[in-house]
């Protein structure tokens, strides 16, 4: 069950290198039609967000940037905690949230519109294999009879379904279930980003990441369809945040330096 925390966005602006430009009335009404910017945060992926186990506080790059976006628009922010990606993506069509951060993928463009990428990582998506696996590379893994677990509607699953030639993808509801499928021998691997997989590997002695990757990663703000003025405003915010150092500060604060980087400026 997702949990909601209300944040006073106006108090956030201290420490920002520059104040984001104010949106037009049309952009503001599209961006926050309820009067509050509802920011969906996927807390099962630390690159996007995380939830403190003791306090329940939701934090991370999306929280910091979502607050900054709300402050620039002159509205409060409401952080909506999503522990798994399937419900977050399903809610894109139900007016539950206004912005979220997810990996850019063509399969998602029928549900959302994307701002330019603000986070990027090369060779970041790979597979964790269990103790005793002989697979060392993606070529070793992509063989008949091999199965890889991944979460429904998550970028690793969508990419692997398009690119694997012989191995099969086994869909799960969340990251714990996907890892469990591999651990229990119901899949020969578990696909996710390197940051998550390294942490998982520490809980299963003898497991290891493949030496190579099946994809890089680009993360961006997503907005529900048919909000063109809001999408343009968020695109401008993202490019300004790249220049001002706002995105790099969010990366550093989340402890992700060396894992992801600020995406390059969008092509004009």
Topology:
Elements: E1 4-7, H1 25-31, E2 37-42, E3 50-51, E4 58-59, H2 61-73, E5 77-82, H3 85-90, E6 99-103, E7 112-114, E8 119-129, H4 138-141, E9 147-151, H5 155-163, E10 168-172, H6 175-183, E11 189-193, H7 194-201, E12 208-209, E13 215-224, H8 228-244, H9 246-253, E14 261-262
Parallel strand pairs: 2-5, 2-6, 9-10, 9-11
Antiparallel strand pairs: 1-5, 3-4, 6-13, 7-13, 8-11, 8-12, 8-13, 8-14
Helix pairs in contact: 1-8, 2-9
Please, could you describe this protein's structure?
This protein has 268 residues and is an alpha/beta fold. It has two domains: 4-120 and 218-262, Periplasmic binding protein-like II (D-Maltodextrin-Binding Protein, domain 2), CATH 3.40.190; 122-215, D-Maltodextrin-Binding Protein, domain 2 (3-Layer(aba) Sandwich). The protein is built from nine helices and 14 strands. The protein has helices at 25-31, 61-73, 85-90, 138-141, 155-163, 175-183, 194-201, 228-244, 246-253; strands at 4-7, 37-42, 50-51, 58-59, 77-82, 99-103, 112-114, 119-129, 147-151, 168-172, 189-193, 208-209, 215-224, 261-262. Strands 1, 2, 5, 6, 7, 8, 9, 10, 11, 12, 13 and 14 form a twelve-stranded mixed β-sheet that branches. A two-stranded antiparallel sheet has the order 3-4. Helix 1 (25-31) packs across helix 8 and helix 2 (61-73) packs antiparallel against helix 9. The longest helix has 17 residues, at 228-244. Residues 5-17 have low confidence and may be disordered.
Radius of gyration: 19 Å
How far apart are the termini?
Answer: 40 Å
How many independent structural domains? 2
Q: Which sheet architecture does the biggest sheet show?
A: 12 strands, mixed
Count up the helices: 9
Shape: elongated
Query: Which architecture name of the largest domain does CATH use?
Result: 3-Layer(aba) Sandwich
Question: How much of the polypeptide forms β-strand, as a percent range?
Answer: 25-35%
CATH superfamily of the largest domain: Periplasmic binding protein-like II
Average pLDDT score: 93
CATH topology of the largest domain: D-Maltodextrin-Binding Protein, domain 2
Question: What is the CATH class designation of the largest domain?
Answer: Alpha Beta
Order of helices and strands: EHEEEHEHEEEHEHEHEHEEHHE
The helicity comes to 25-40%
Low-confidence stretches: 5-17
- Assign the structural class, choosing from mainly alpha, mainly beta, alpha/beta, alpha+beta, or little secondary structure: alpha/beta
Number of E strands = 14
């Amino acid at each position: 069950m997702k949990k909601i925390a209300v944040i006073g966005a106006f108090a956030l602006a201290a420490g920002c290198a520059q104040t984001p430009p104010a949106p037009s009335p049309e952009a503001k009404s599209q961006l926050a039609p309820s009067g509050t910017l509802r920011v969906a945060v996927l807390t099962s992926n630390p690159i996007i967000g995380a939830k403190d186990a003791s306090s329940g506080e939701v934090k991370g790059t999306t929280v910091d940037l979502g607050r900054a976006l709300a402050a620039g628009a002159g509205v409060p922010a409401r952080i909506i905690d999503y522990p798994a990606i399937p419900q977050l993506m399903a809610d894109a069509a139900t007016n539950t949230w206004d912005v979220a951060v997810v990996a850019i993928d063509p399969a998602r463009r029928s549900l959302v519109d994307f701002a330019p990428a603000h986070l990027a990582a090369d060779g970041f998506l790979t597979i964790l294999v269990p103790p005793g696996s002989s697979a060392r590379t993606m070529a070793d893994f992509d063989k008949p009879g091999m199965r890889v677990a991944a979460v429904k509607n998550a970028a690793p699953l969508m990419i692997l379904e398009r690119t694997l030639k012989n191995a099969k993808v086994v869909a799960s509801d969340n990251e714990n279930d996907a890892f469990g499928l591999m651990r229990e021998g119901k899949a020969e691997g578990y696909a996710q980003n390197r940051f998550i997989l390294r942490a998982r590997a520490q809980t299963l002695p003898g497991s290891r990441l493949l030496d190579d990757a099946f994809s890089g990663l680009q993360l961006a703000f997503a907005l529900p369809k048919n909000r063109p003025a809001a999408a343009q405003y968020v695109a401008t915010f993202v490019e300004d945040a790249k220049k001002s150092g706002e995105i790099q500060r969010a990366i550093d604060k989340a402890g992700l330096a060396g894992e992801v980087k600020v995406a390059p400026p969008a092509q004009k």
